[in-house]
Design goal:
This protein has 265 residues and is an alpha+beta fold. The chain has helices at 4-19, 57-68, 75-79, 101-106, 109-119, 171-190, 211-219, and strands spanning 21-23, 31-42, 127-129, 145-153, 156-163, 166-167, 193-207, 229-232, 247-250.
Amino acid sequence: MLNEMDRQYIKMAEKIIKKGYYDQNRTGVATLKLPHQIMQFDLEEEFPILTTKFVAFKTAVKELLWIFKDQSNDVKKLQEKNVHIWDEWALEDGTIGKAYGFQIAKYHQIDTLIEALKNNPQDRRMMMNLWNIEDLPEMALQPCCFLTMWDVTDGRLNCMLIQRSGDTALGIPFNTSQYAALVHMIAQVTGLKVGLFTHVINNAHVYENHMEGLKLQISRKEEALEAPKIWINPEIKNFYDFTPEDIKLIDYKHLGKINMGSVAV
């Protein structure tokens, strides 16, 4: 039986390949795309990460902490952790400009969110937004995952992630597991249980050079494995104390890596 991540993701990928709109885009590599794709998971039931291919969860966690804990735009800090996903976007000063972690720091967004979750959990304005219009021209890359909206219902922390543009083969699996981990981390430091995680992708696309790899992954769907469990160090009560070693997957089994070709964002 397919786990929820493999089931929902493969259904979306099959639909894009079958019904997607074919056209060019700014990258020069044509895509098939579908608008408004949605996946939703109950994080109390299952942690969403693919088993039909390997997803680099440790790298995802390191980038997550760089954005939300370190609130950094300094690519060198990622390179020190052997993470090179931002190397090609680094500006002359070694940063990605006023993007991602810069926006979290600028408006104290993590602190504001955690304070609201603890003291006013029925607030309907709890969100973190990286799409700052006045700073967009000074970003090396304008954010793809740019908005999270948060809700507390019956002691459960729910989160909706809005992604303006999603590379189906490479980006979306990485981002889904990454932000699901963020929900677990914030739930722990605010004394809440995890609830729904909803991932909304405005433009979900498959690049031509990823097509064969994605078809190979789809062919594995009957072999999908049981979802792993996530472990969050129970000693951590302050969000800023998290390290990559405090977030791990237990029994993550997968069907191996698939070479999808180059990354295009």
